[in-house]
Amino acid sequence: MRKKKKVESVNVKGFGKKSNIFFNILIALVAFSCVFPFLFVIVISLTSEQSLVHNGYQLIPQEWSLDGYRYLYTMKDKLLQALFITVFVTIFGTLVNVTFTSTYAYAISRPTFKYRRFFTLFALVTMLFSAGMVPSYIVMTNMLHLKDTIWALILPMALSPFNIIVMRTFFRRSVPDAIIESAKIDGAGELRTFIQIVLPLAVPGIATISLFAALAYWNDWFNALLYIQSDNLVPLQYLLMKIQNNIDYMTKNAAMSAALSGVGGSIPKEATRMAMVVISTLPIAASYPFFQRYFVSGLTIGGVKE
């Protein structure tokens, strides 16, 4: 009997090691499939336009070139200004979004708050129904007079119902009521309890919704299309979209292409397009590892259903 038990334990251990190797290889393949497209885009952005025309997309191109980045460098002043606007809107907008979201979620997570059900349903309804683009535009322009201002890029996304639900569940699961009651017994008010007691315990959840908000602000271009007219307030994503539209127009216009050929040759359309993808994606992708250790725990705890 003992020998059989030993043999069974050895078989279980051997099967466990094999399954671990299998799942490690599987996860590695999935991770590579996620990273490979971005690496391929970088390679295409460094490929000459002639090589792309004659040979198509290749993992190892026959001719390397920086023409796409050189073409964007000719508009470096506009790109730097747009990058500054995008970074400012992303940082400040994320702070505003996290502040509003966390305070709203903390209020509806407390059982002592009398109107918590009403405000919870209020947040859920906004996830299902929307007034539409026209009323939003009228409110932003005629009532709030925010057209062609930096606030038009920040306030429309200052509150996220999905992040509110995530943080509400996170507060209820990770912040015990006993800690809050002990803080109140010691004389702490609601604001002091929230800042000194609750927020340090909610760092994973705060990091999770901060990443969501930062991605939304960084990738936003539609609000700029609606509300921004000044060139000094154009964000990076909207500027790159305008550059792409201009490139498509100039490459289709034979007369304009001929006029440009005397200045600097034909425009590297595909390489420039991929270079714009790299410029718009690389900064936010580089910041992701700093949130990674908080992201998993924050998302899993905040996603637990009651």
TrEMBL record:
InterPro entries: MetI-like, MetI-like_sf. Belongs to the binding-protein-dependent transport system permease family. GO terms for biological process: transmembrane transport. It is a multi-pass membrane protein. PROSITE patterns: ABC_TM1, PROKAR_LIPOPROTEIN. It is found in: Cell membrane. This is Carbohydrate ABC transporter permease. GO terms for cellular component: plasma membrane. Coiled coil: none annotated. Keywords: Cell membrane, Membrane, Transmembrane, Transmembrane helix, Transport. Residues 83-288 form the ABC transmembrane type-1 domain. Pfam families: BPD_transp_1 (PF00528). The chain crosses the membrane at residues 21-46, 79-106, 118-138, 150-171, 191-218, 271-291.
